[in-house]
């Protein structure tokens, strides 16, 4: 599913954003909408990019994020039910080979369930605070030197409903259906409580050097 690849025709041409330098993609050579990022793996700019999923071999962005979340919830539920019913079956079978196979099913489904839940937990937080995985990683990198790390999300509207609308689409009735999100958002209100990282006082905390510089290079575009 198309994650929201930005074509030249759809590229944002205005430069009246707060940081126009980061809105220009030197690879695609075009200005792109706010909160979009270039994917080095796919070689394209993706609107509202959350991350590149190596398991699905696809970017997760504006158009397929809702489908991705439905996939996570449905998959975790299926693996949980598979493990639960397999445990019940294990208690009733007498055949040794069948018992071993059932144990393998229980172990595999339990491992997959835990792995998916570990993906769901941060995504729920991102949904509630109107943040993407890319933005969260960038935020942690930028504020890693700060003594006070309780930093609000830049695009958190303060309303859970409005945050969900930006991530899942404007029509709540479609949130449970794995169909492309066609809602296009051209501007994003800035959280009034947001403070840019370079306006914080670093205090006496030591700088985190090489790892931060490497991380920063990942987000130049």
Automatic annotation (TrEMBL):
- Main localisation, per the record? membrane
The residue ranges of the Palmitoyltransferase DHHC domain are 20-138
Query: Which reactions appear under catalytic activity for this entry?
Result: L-cysteinyl-[protein] + hexadecanoyl-CoA = S-hexadecanoyl-L-cysteinyl-[protein] + CoA
What Gene Ontology biological process does one annotation of this record name? protein targeting to membrane
Q: Where in the cell is it found?
A: Endomembrane system
Give UniProt keywords alphabetically: Acyltransferase, Lipoprotein, Membrane, Palmitate, Transferase, Transmembrane, Transmembrane helix
Q: Which domain of life is it from?
A: Eukaryota
Q: Which topology term describes how it sits in the membrane? A: Multi-pass membrane protein
InterPro entries recorded: Palmitoyltrfase_DHHC (IPR001594), PFA4/ZDH16/20/ERF2-like (IPR039859)
Q: What class of enzyme is it?
A: transferase
MF GO annotations? protein-cysteine S-palmitoyltransferase activity
Q: Give me the Gene Ontology terms describing cellular component.
A: endoplasmic reticulum; Golgi apparatus
Q: What is its EC number?
A: 2.3.1.225
Transmembrane region(s): 68-91, 97-117
Q: What is known of its domains?
A: The DHHC domain is required for palmitoyltransferase activity.
Which family does the record claim for this protein? Belongs to the DHHC palmitoyltransferase family.
What name is this protein filed under? Palmitoyltransferase
| Annotated organism of origin | Trichomonas vaginalis (strain ATCC PRA-98 / G3)
């Amino acid at each position: 599913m198309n994650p929201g690849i930005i074509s030249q025709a759809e590229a944002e041409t205005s430069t009246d954003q707060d940081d126009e330098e980061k809105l220009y993609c030197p690879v695609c050579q075009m200005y792109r909408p706010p909160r979009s990022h270039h994917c080095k793996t796919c070689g394209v700019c993706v609107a509202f990019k959350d991350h590149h999923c190596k398991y699905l071999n696809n970017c997760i962005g504006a158009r397929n994020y809702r489908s991705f979340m439905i996939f996570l919830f449905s998959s975790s539920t299926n693996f949980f039910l598979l493990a639960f019913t397999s445990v019940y079956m294990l208690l009733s079978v007498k055949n040794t080979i069948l018992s071993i196979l059932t144990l393998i099913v229980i172990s595999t489904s339990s491992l997959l369930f835990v792995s998916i839940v570990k993906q769901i937990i941060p995504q729920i937080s991102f949904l509630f605070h109107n943040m993407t995985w890319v933005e969260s990683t960038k935020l942690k990198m930028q504020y890693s030197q700060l003594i006070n790390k309780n930093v609000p999300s830049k695009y958190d509207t303060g309303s859970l409903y409005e945050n969900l609308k930006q991530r899942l689409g404007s029509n709540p009735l479609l949130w449970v259906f794995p169909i492309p999100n066609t809602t296009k958002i051209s501007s994003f209100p800035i959280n009034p409580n947001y403070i840019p990282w370079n306006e914080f006082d670093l205090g006496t905390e030591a700088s985190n050097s090489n790892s931060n510089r490497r991380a920063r290079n990942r987000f130049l575009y």
